[in-house]
Amino acid sequence: LLVNASEASARKIPDTLFGIFFEEINHAGAGGLWAELVNNRGFEAGGPNVPSNIDPWSIIGDESKVIVSTDRSSCFDRNKIAVQVQVLCDHTGANICPDGGVGIYNPGFWGMNIEQGKSYKLVLYVRSQESINVSVALTGSNGSQKLAAANIVAADVSSWTKVEILLEATGTDPNSRLELRSSKKGVIWFDQVSLMPTDTYKGHGFRKDLFGMLKDLKPAFIRFPGGCFVEGDWLRNAFRWKETIGQWEERPGHFGDVWNYWTDDGLGHFEFLQLAEDLDSLPVWVFNNGVSHHDQVDTSSILPFVQEILDGLEFARGDPTSAWGSIRAKMGHPEPFDLRYVAIGNEDCGKTKYRADLYDFHIYSSASSVFSNARHFDSAPRRGPKAFVSEYAVTGNDAGKGSLLAALGEAGFLIGVEKNSEAIEMASYAPLFVNDNDRRWNPDAIVFTSSQMYGTPSYWMQHFFKESNGATLLSSSLQANPSNSLIASAITWRNSLDNNDYLRIKVVNFGTTAVNIKISLTGLGQNSLETLFGAVMTELTSNNVMDENSFKEPNKVIPVKALIEKVSDNMEVVLAPRSLNS
Ligand code: AHR
């Protein structure tokens, strides 16, 4: 491999090249990155229908003791449904309540992760014609072990009353549930029941462990909130930003009909912009352009959509005194968000004849096809709109639920992206997250449950590229490449922690045999040669190319570092079969 480090042959890589794409798919947000523990907090999952779908809320007690139904009596105009709990039993008399009382419980998203020593903020709205004594508890999954408890005792809740309680957990169970019970005959209505851990990232509502996995990738941008999620199968179920801002209690929520689940939209337009800021990434807002999978507005009726988008821009970027900017300011962010990029719809590129600054490119294919697409942009025009590779991944049999083989195909492709970054502005893997209890798409970069998580090899592969944004691409060429199974690139980048310049060479060996490779560095200059003091080789490989990580073996396929003993401008390294190396 010849690497020429002279300035004359070098070129700057765009600051924005590698980022992430967050889509509300696989419960990535609701039941994932968004830390809300109550699933269907407003009893609204059926949408505006009565009776609505209170799933996964369940009833504690049989029909002789308690009747649970819904009606439209909520104090929130945009989500009118509330749950009515009719307690038929009492402490005394003919119909005695079971121990602990009767009521409802919410199991969260396949179990709430309650951890000893941590606190959880419960907010709910309650109404009754009589005085109430409701016991609130966080319990283990079968309701037996109490991890936190409190009582709501009130003489007069004849109008809707907001209750806030801080619950301190005295035990740990990743499969807990929230119970609301009473042993007093009467009718109680509940609405907008929320339980949030208090230790979210900066108190912004993001689950810290999952947020950390994103931050570690140093993403230059974050594209959100989808994908197909933005379009909807039908326009009536598309993500519409205005429905997702303001007080969480007042958000109507919506049924994402492509990935088939309800979201309360706690993670809304504001929170996505906040997420981008917290990640030090540029937000890329994908908005619905009047097109869904099965219907679309007629061009003559598109103006309300255009206005909605302009309002969304004002919400993000406008002065805090502007109409929509002031709502953002009221939500706690007077400073404008740094929104510079928007994407018009999803996968509709074929439909526009108008020139855009960037054009969207998606690739999902087999490992060898994605690997060989490293050359796809070799002949792409260097002038005019650049590509936004906003979704790439190896899929199908080669990928399983996230194989080494998939990661190698993608790494090869990204080396091609890096080398062609004159014609490409941005690239992001898809999808980012999967809650293991609701796999709608395989594979994904980060797998999690209520309490666990791991990165697939494709997640770790992205770590090899996290220094590339804004780095300098050096000219590099492989002098021999039998069966085209190798691909390589070289960059220099400055580490802001120690202010030193580093050289990073990446090589994918997609072949099945080990390769001895000689790396010849030219153009380094005498000073740099003298300070070429050490080198580390990082390798992503495994015994079997179909190996995957799992909750049991989260570190089976992760980057492994080793010191290179003999460092020189002419050194030899061995590339393992089926490996990514840097
Ligand atoms: O990444 C999953 C889906 O693939 C996205 O929603 C869509 O844009 C693409 O078809």
Automatic annotation (TrEMBL):
The keyword Ribosomal protein does not apply. Gene3D superfamilies: Glycosidases, Golgi alpha-mannosidase II. Pfam families: Alpha-L-AF_C, ASD1_dom. Its EC number is 3.2.1.55. Residues 390-579 form the Alpha-L-arabinofuranosidase C-terminal domain. Keywords: Glycoprotein, Hydrolase, Signal. PANTHER family: ALPHA-L-ARABINOFURANOSIDASE 1. The lineage of its organism: Eukaryota, Viridiplantae, Streptophyta, Embryophyta, Tracheophyta. It is an enzyme of class 3 (hydrolase). GO terms for molecular function: alpha-L-arabinofuranosidase activity. Belongs to the glycosyl hydrolase 51 family. One of its GO terms (biological process) is L-arabinose metabolic process. It comes from Solanum verrucosum. It catalyses: Hydrolysis of terminal non-reducing alpha-L-arabinofuranoside residues in alpha-L-arabinosides. This is non-reducing end alpha-L-arabinofuranosidase.
